Fold:
Amino acid sequence: MQSFNNTIQSNWALAALFVGVLPATVAAAVLDHRSGRGAAARWAAYAAVLYLVALLVTAGFNIPMNSDLAAAGNPSTMTDFAIVDRFKTSWVAANALRAALCAVALGALTRALVLHGRSDAAARPLGDAAAVGGFDEDPSTASVDEISKVTNKWPSMRTSSSTELRRVRQGVCGC
Structure:
């Protein structure tokens, strides 16, 4: 375990990743909030808080216990194994707690990502048709003739009746 701890503490890339997740998650929450994606921002904020608690558990329990274990000396010359027994129970419990916190934080961040994607899709009722070109303005206000011209450019968007064209104009169909 001591050599494992030394490897972790000397790896700058792992440390940057371990600590860098928190500012990246906070940045996602702030950016979503500023862009009007309130639900996604809340879930990203929940993830940030959960990850912060996991970092506090790491700093408050796991790292000090690792230091105590390292201070005990070489395992082959140790005579008092009380620290090892204390380490096994307390460290494992703290590690399980931070693993659970990180798993729940990942779930919250996943939910934020899903909500972020849904809000982008809702902003484009006709997919990317307007961005590709074909509508001069908002596609939801386009006339049936304008929609017919655009949908004839893409076979996958062709509709067969005026009812479907009206649904496209209202943004109700999933095309």
Remarks:
- Confidence is low (pLDDT under 50) at residues 126-136.
